[in-house]
Recover the amino acids of this structure.
């Protein structure tokens, strides 16, 4: 390794250690600093941009992304960037969204195995059948869906702007897909009745009242957030009565109700940054808890976290380096699907956070 590389790796390691010394073991930091240095060197050489979701593991999150954030923030960055290629350190539907917004750019996802249980819970055909069952009712799909599902939608949303998106439609009935828990939490916030027609047929006339001021949902769930329970919160509060509990809106309504705050990953990060509390508990993907702890060393973050997203965990520094070295894995979206999906994503971006 040339002297300049040794110096660069050392500098990278020292910066990572300053941020992550209480989160990542030192031997791991030394190894990953070499990877991070080479990624950043190749990124500059190729004119690439790296987007990193809040759920990325700490050594990656704090070393190589040019921009970090939640799905909405990274969608905006993808729409604005002029750099090429775009390396999306996140799951596949996120990289698809970047490609939807940048058809002429190369979009890379470090692992093609980085799927999503929620995105896999619904298909484009499912959306078409719901449209047939409820003609004229607008379809809102969570951005955590694949491109062909977005293409069947009127508008997308994130957990951070779902309420604003629904209210922008100014209609009594909305099809909201596919997250069951997010739909229930949004229904409560917007004052809508929620139904799940797949398991509750509404053919009889005496059931039509159920369609008034209704949110029509789907039984999809995030395999991480569905694992948190009210008992988890009660257990922690018994030991730490002054804890502030933050829950992602993909958690069950019972968990959200028992928490002190619910919001998107970015909203939770801002809450911790701006609020003075003795200690915090984040009910979301556990790498994000580590990332927030690294950014706020003066604040006590409780570790109730054995819930790691197996899909986000597929994105590693090693694979990010290979993505830049070998131009893999390229994300493609058929043009006919991309154009229709773009309309739904653009409408989401127009709504704002």
């Amino acid at each position: 390794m040339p002297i300049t590389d040794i110096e660069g790796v050392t500098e990278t390691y020292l910066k990572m250690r300053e941020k992550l010394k209480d989160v990542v073991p030192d031997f791991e930091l030394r190894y990953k600093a070499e990877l991070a240095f080479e990624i950043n060197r190749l990124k500059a050489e190729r004119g690439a941009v790296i987007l990193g979701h809040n759920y990325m593991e700490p050594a990656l999150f704090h070393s190589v992304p040019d921009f970090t954030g939640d799905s909405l923030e990274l969608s905006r960055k993808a729409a604005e960037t002029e750099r090429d290629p775009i390396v999306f350190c996140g799951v596949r539907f996120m990289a698809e969204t970047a490609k939807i917004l940048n058809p002429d750019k190369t979009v890379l996802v470090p692992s093609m195995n980085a799927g999503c249980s929620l995105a896999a819970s619904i298909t484009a055909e499912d959306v078409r059948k719901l449209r047939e069952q409820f003609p004229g009712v607008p379809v809102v799909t969570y951005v955590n869906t694949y491109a062909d599902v977005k293409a069947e939608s009127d508008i997308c949303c994130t957990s951070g702007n779902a309420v604003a998106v629904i209210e922008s439609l100014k209609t009594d009935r909305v099809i909201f897909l596919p997250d069951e828990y997010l739909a229930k939490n949004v229904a409560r916030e917007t004052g809508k009745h929620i139904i799940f027609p797949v398991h509750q047929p509404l053919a009889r006339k005496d059931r039509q009242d159920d369609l008034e001021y209704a949110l029509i949902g789907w039984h999809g769930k995030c395999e991480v957030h569905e694992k948190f329970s009210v008992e988890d919160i009660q257990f922690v509060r018994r030991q730490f009565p002054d804890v502030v509990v933050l829950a992602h809106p993909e958690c069950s309504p019972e968990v959200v109700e028992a928490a002190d705050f619910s919001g998107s990953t970015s909203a939770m990060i801002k809450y911790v940054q701006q609020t003075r509390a003795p200690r915090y508990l984040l009910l979301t993907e556990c790498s994000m808890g580590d990332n927030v702890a690294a950014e706020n060393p003066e604040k006590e973050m409780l570790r109730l976290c054995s819930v790691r997203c197996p899909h986000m965990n597929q994105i590693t520094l090693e694979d990010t380096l290979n993505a830049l070295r070998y131009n893999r894995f390229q994300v493609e979206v058929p043009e006919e699907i991309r154009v229709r999906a773009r309309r739904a994503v653009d409408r989401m971006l127009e709504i704002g956070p």
Notes: The chain has three domains: 3-114+312-326, 119-221, 225-301. The mean pLDDT is 91. The CA atoms of residues 216 and 297 lie 43 Å apart. The radius of gyration is 21 Å.
